[in-house]
Design a protein that fits this description.
2 helices
Length: about 160
């Protein structure tokens, strides 16, 4: 009977390896990271976030450097976005943040454009220069409204 117990052990190890692979894939697809708190946190205020969600990527020149940690409504009724960034980043104080879309109907993400100042943002500070999301629905509405005005229709 030693062959049976050895076979059971191999099958058990195979099942454990399969479960570990499934857990790893679930974490990767879900966008979770193993990194705990303690990253470099910055804040930005936007007039319109257009569907930006927590855990959306934050990129510089297309390279992911962090993620959106939290979104809340500020006292001035603007969206306050908290970003958790790579602690090794040194961003000039005139860095700007824009909400962009991956493709025409893709997910939203934040793109940081580096400024040229010699002073750097510190942990917990706010990015002053922001560009809100462009909403496709509003653009289409304006286009249709202008087309109606040019055709003389008031409806």
């Amino acid at each position: 009977m030693p062959n049976t117990s050895r076979r059971d052990l191999v099958v058990g190890l195979f099942v454990l390896a399969g479960l570990a692979a499934l857990a790893f894939l679930s974490i990767r697809v879900g966008g979770l990271s193993y990194k705990g708190p303690g990253g470099f946190r910055l804040y930005a205020r936007f007039d319109e976030i257009g569907g930006l969600k927590p855990r959306a990527p934050v990129v510089i020149a297309g390279v992911k450097v962090g993620q959106v940690e939290n979104i809340s409504l500020g006292d001035d009724y603007r969206a306050v976005v908290e970003m958790d960034l790579d602690p090794g980043l040194r961003l000039p104080v005139d860095t700007s943040a824009s909400i962009l879309t991956a493709g025409i109907l893709g997910d939203r993400y934040i793109s940081l454009q580096i400024g040229g100042e010699e002073e750097y943002l510190r942990d917990g500070e706010e990015i002053s220069f922001t560009e809100s999301a462009v909403l496709l629905e509003r653009l289409l509405g304006r286009f249709i409204h202008r087309a109606n005005l040019q055709n003389g229709s008031t409806e």
